Amino acid sequence: MFGQFVLALRKRWEGAEVMRQMDALGVQSISITNLTALFTGMVLALQTSYALAQFGGKLFVGRVVVLSICRELGPTLTALMVAARVGAGITAELGTMNVTEQVDALRALGASPIRKLVVPRVLAVTMMLPILTLLADFLGIFGGLFIAVFEIKIGASFYISTILSSLHYNDLMHGLCKTPFFGIEIAMIGCYNGLTASGGADGVGRATTTAVVLSSITVLMTDFFLTKLFLILPLGIQ
């Protein structure tokens, strides 16, 4: 399916459908990804402050939060939330179309299911995931700021200055460069399981569960190998 997807990219895209999928799969996922990042930043700041208190290192909470969120937690947790929501949605939608023979009807009309159904969804998720990750990074840092000010009693100006001095362009790109890989994996796994679903409603349910599990595991495995790759490349993102 991935090979057919690459070949379909050479033809004219369904621009209107891509935009519709960007809204359905990306924009409507903002609330869940931002909420996850916000409370992750708050918990991270809280736990870090208690861990560093015995060493007198509470002032370094901002540095730990911003680097953890931007390099790892932001992109990974965002991808996992998207895998749960979007991966399940894609599989259920395409699976229902497949078991009700709508996909066969497309083929009978001479249309390619890959170009009509797969390409817009894969492109939409791949393009929207970096944007969702950027928003999640900001909300995670803001959550850490909230805890730093009201719980740890660190001044907001000091927290922000610590973030600005600690965060570099490479730290941000280290996380963002992973997101296109995550997006392709999530959308491709969802589309594949949807288009191969069979057995009625029960089969669609099994395919949806499989898609979410495989997407989550693949995201975590890919995150590890991409992190290793970025750290060992001579001119990589370090």
Description:
With 238 residues, this protein is mostly helical. It has one domain. Helix 4 runs parallel beside helix 8 and helix 4 packs parallel to helix 9. The longest helix is centred in the middle third of the chain and has 39 residues. The radius of gyration is 20 Å and the shape is elongated. The protein starts with a helix and ends in a 6-residue tail after the last helix.
Question: Topology, pairings included?
Answer:
Layout: H1 2-8, H2 15-26, H3 30-53, H4 61-99, H5 102-108, H6 113-150, H7 156-166, H8 169-176, H9 179-195, H10 200-232
Helix pairs in contact: 2-6, 3-4, 3-6, 4-6, 4-7, 4-8, 4-9, 4-10, 6-9, 9-10
Highlighted features:
single chain; 238 residues; mainly alpha; elongated
Summarize the structure.
With 238 residues, the protein is an all-alpha fold. 82% of the residues lie in helices and 0% in strands.
| Helix content bin | over 70%
Distance between the termini: 33 Å
The secondary-structure element order is HHHHHHHHHH
Percentage of residues in strands: under 5%
Radius of gyration: 20 Å
> What is the count of β-strands?
0
Sum up the overall morphology in one term.
elongated
Structural class category: mainly alpha
Oligomer kind? single chain
Mean pLDDT: 90
Give the low-pLDDT segments.
Answer: none
- Domain tally: 1
**What's the number of helices?**
10
Q: Biggest sheet, open or closed, and with what strands and sense? A: none
